[in-house]
Specification:
Radius of gyration: 22 Å
Structural class: alpha+beta
Strand order of the largest sheet: 5-6-7-8-2-1-9
Largest sheet: 7 strands, mixed
Helix content: 25-40%
Low-confidence stretches: 208-245, 253-257
Order of helices and strands: HEHEEEHEEEEHHHHE
Strand content: 15-25%
Mean pLDDT: 81
Length: 257
């Protein structure tokens, strides 16, 4: 999927994925393409630093356990249904490498690192191997990982509202065409909703209902009305990574390009 996106000229700076995809081949493919990544790994993932960086060695779980309290920062991975999705995060730089080691002719330093997320309530840990231009702040890496929730939520919305998983295809080509058309429809609706909301915010709706009067006509608010459209835009299903997978993400506003 990543190779096809690159060949098609899709503009993206980062790839995020959960642990089901593992590391190794996908890491090297992204490095050769000059793309940053935040890839989920298990606690058994082996970590090793070198060069002038502080010595770090052992499994990701062992490294996380040895971190001092000062190493953790509370950051939001994005807006959820109940506000900012806050967790405690720690980030360790493991190695600085010249970009031309993977991309011929490229210049600059890139950093291989380990990002750790700790749940505030129960202390559950999650681990991510990272690759990014040197100097990338931890907030950017957290934002990239957080986009997975947004993208997965979009998949869930496409399934429930547009029938992404409602097909009886018997070939890969049939499945691929169905999925492509549904996601195209989803994109059209998202753009249409955004434009409608922008117009609604610029226009003050006129209210001309007589006091004490009632209408026997429409008993429900029209889904096409600016007010209803604005409400739909604030729905978490339509404003925000169900399917597990690798996601191509656009960089956050402060991400390197």
């Amino acid at each position: 999927m990543i190779e096809r996106a690159i060949a098609a000229g899709v503009s993206f700076a980062w790839v995020a994925a959960d642990t089901v995809y593992g590391v190794g081949e996908i890491e090297m493919a992204l490095r050769r393409a000059g793309k940053g990544y935040v890839l989920g790994v298990t606690g058994a993932h082996q970590v090793l630093s070198w060069d002038a960086l502080p010595a770090v060695a052992g499994s990701a779980a062992e490294v996380a356990k040895a971190l001092p309290a000062a190493a953790w920062r509370r950051l939001s991975a994005g807006e959820g249904t109940k506000g900012p999705r806050l967790h405690d995060w720690a980030y360790l730089e493991l190695a600085h490498l010249e970009a031309d080691e993977d991309v011929p002719g490229a210049s600059g330093l890139w950093t291989r690192g380990l990002l750790i997320r700790r749940h505030i309530a129960d202390g559950e840990l999650a681990y991510f191997t990272t690759w990014c231009p040197a100097g990338t702040p931890i907030a950017t890496l957290v934002a990239v990982e957080g986009y997975r929730w947004t993208i997965e939520d979009a998949f869930e919305t496409a399934k429930t509202e547009l029938g992404l998983d409602h097909n009886e295809t018997r070939s890969w080509h049939g499945w691929h065409r169905h999925v492509s058309l549904v996601m195209l429809a989803f994109a059209v609706l998202a753009v249409t909703r955004r434009r409608a909301n922008a117009t609604a915010e610029e226009t003050t709706p006129a209210v001309s209902r007589r006091a004490g009067g009632s209408s026997a006509g429409r008993s429900r608010r029209s889904a096409a009305s600016p007010r209803a459209s604005h409400s739909a835009a604030s729905s978490p299903h339509l404003s925000s990574p169900g399917q597990r997978g690798a996601e191509l993400t656009k960089p956050p506003h402060n991400a390197p390009t």
